Automatic annotation (TrEMBL):
Domain DUF218 stretches: 99-229
Pfam families, A to Z: DUF218
Residues spanning the membrane: 6-24, 31-49, 61-81
CDD domains: YdcF-like
Taxonomic placement: Bacteria, Bacillati, Bacillota, Clostridia, Lachnospirales
Record bears the keyword Secreted: no
Any one GO CC term of the record: plasma membrane
GO biological process, one term: Gram-negative-bacterium-type cell wall biogenesis
The protein's name in its UniProt record: DUF218 domain-containing protein
Keywords: Membrane, Transmembrane, Transmembrane helix
Transmembrane helix listed as a keyword: yes
Length: 248
């Protein structure tokens, strides 16, 4: 139990430091408090492992077994879904040409695209410059954004030399579900059974594809890179988002 006690203590310390890093970076602020929860759980586990003989005497066996099984089941479910998320985050050598590409929006600071959105747009540019698909730019306007994400994306790609006639704005959405539903409405008015390419952050591809498959029969995803230090945060956050979409 000494090794487990030490490991849980180290993981708890890492979690609080990681929370501080995310707060300074302003990455996924709404979910960053998850790491505080992880820290608290780790410190509780540290106490349990460090005082296991006392805990064993005072906690009924049925409760200890139930907690152990719950943790094992949670870890198995987590690893299964994370394997899907990681699989779809891997970039391929080449991608098929489809009728439409849908670029999913991310934060805009005033009128300037964030690093996350810039990475998505660079991945979009690399894909669309080599084929003739139309491009749906999907993203509404958040509270700290002076223009819609769709408009910011359009300006970015025009500056990169993409023909404006290829770019279609979807500027009402505020979630991934709405991104793809509203994009489907636009595409469905132009073409039946269209094939699509979804371009988004690598951690986001799996969930975006699963949602898109409700509306489209032929879907592929192109992943954009994510800043290395924040990869654990977004991959863990995405697990809970996938569970939410699966259950609800």
């Amino acid at each position: 139990m000494g090794i487990l006690a030490a490991f849980s203590l180290l993981l708890g310390c890492f979690s609080i430091l990681y929370f501080l890093y995310l707060t300074a970076y302003n990455a996924g602020a709404g979910f960053s408090f998850f790491w505080i929860l992880v820290c608290v759980i780790c410190f509780i586990l540290h106490f349990i492992f460090k005082n296991y003989d006392t805990v064993k005497l005072n906690v009924p066996k049925v409760i200890r077994v139930a907690v152990f099984l719950f943790i094992i089941i949670l870890l198995v479910v987590f690893l299964i879904f994370e394997s899907f998320i990681v699989r779809d985050s891997m970039r391929k050598e080449s991608y098929e040409e489809t009728d439409y590409a849908i670029v999913l929006g991310a934060a805009v600071r005033g009128t300037t695209v964030s690093l996350t959105l810039s990475n998505r747009l660079e991945a979009a540019y690399e894909y669309i410059k080599g084929n003739n698909c139309k491009v749906i730019l999907s993203g509404g306007q958040g509270p700290s954004e002076d223009i819609t994400e769709a408009e910011a994306m359009k300006r970015y790609l025009i500056d990169k030399g993409i023909d404006e006639d290829r770019l279609i704005k979807e500027d009402q959405s505020s979630s991934t579900q709405e991104n793809l539903k509203y994009s489907f409405d636009i595409i469905n008015n132009e073409k039946d059974n269209a094939s699509i390419t979804i371009i988004t952050s690598n951690y986001h591809v799996y969930r975006a594809k699963k949602i898109a498959e409700k509306y489209f029969n032929d879907v592929q995803g192109v992943p954009a890179k994510t800043l290395l230090p924040i990869i654990p945060h977004y991959y863990v956050r995405e697990f809970f988002a996938v569970i939410k979409d699966t259950v609800f």
